[in-house]
Amino acid sequence: MEIFLSICLGLGLSASSGFRVFLPMLVANIAAMSGWVTPGESFAWLSTWPAFFLLLTASLAEIGGYYIPFIDNLLDTIATPAAVIAGTLLSTSFIQIDNPVLHWGLGLIVGGGTAGLVQVGTGLLRLLSSKTTAGLGNPVVSTAENIASFSFSGLAIFLPLIAMALVVLLILWLFKRIASLRKSK
Fold it and tell me: For the segment 48-92, what is each residue's pLDDT rounded down to a tens digit?
């Protein structure tokens, strides 16, 4: 059961990385420093003060950048590979498996894949918002993404099973939304 909960935690934090790259890492850092979660031995850096200040600064810069029109679209280009890396790191830091190949493979496939999928979905949503509102609707999208990232991160830490169910529903919704966008072209 412990491995299942650690996978749920990693998956929830990874999905949150698809909305914002650094905010879920900051939430995980605070949770680790508070003793709510315990990262793997090789990820002890996640529960340090230097990591806190670095992640806080990066989170504030990222959140602020998404409120600047057209910079937000540039950030989406950068955030896509960064989200995959962050999702992989977050998943791998909490999944408790002794086999390194399986550990990192699962982290990359589950964590990186989930973060990448969510990031691509939000990037398409922002692109649609930019096309239909000339960028004026993007701050609304950014606010929703900030709330989703923070909420999913908190749920992943405190209620990992619910977070996993919501991630599955989110992925299904994204697939449906992408399919409907393709049909409308």
Answer: 999 999 999 999 999 999 999 888 889 988 999 999 999 999 999
Q: Please give the residue range of the domain that contains residue 152.
A: 2-184
Cα torsion 131, 136, 137, 141 to 10°: value is 100
Amino acid 109 reads I
The count of structural domains within the chain is 1
Q: State the SS3 of 8-29.
A: HHHHHHHHHHHHCCCHHHHHHH
Tell me the per-residue pLDDT of 20-44, one tens digit each, with 9 for 90 and over.
999 999 999 999 999 989 898 889 9
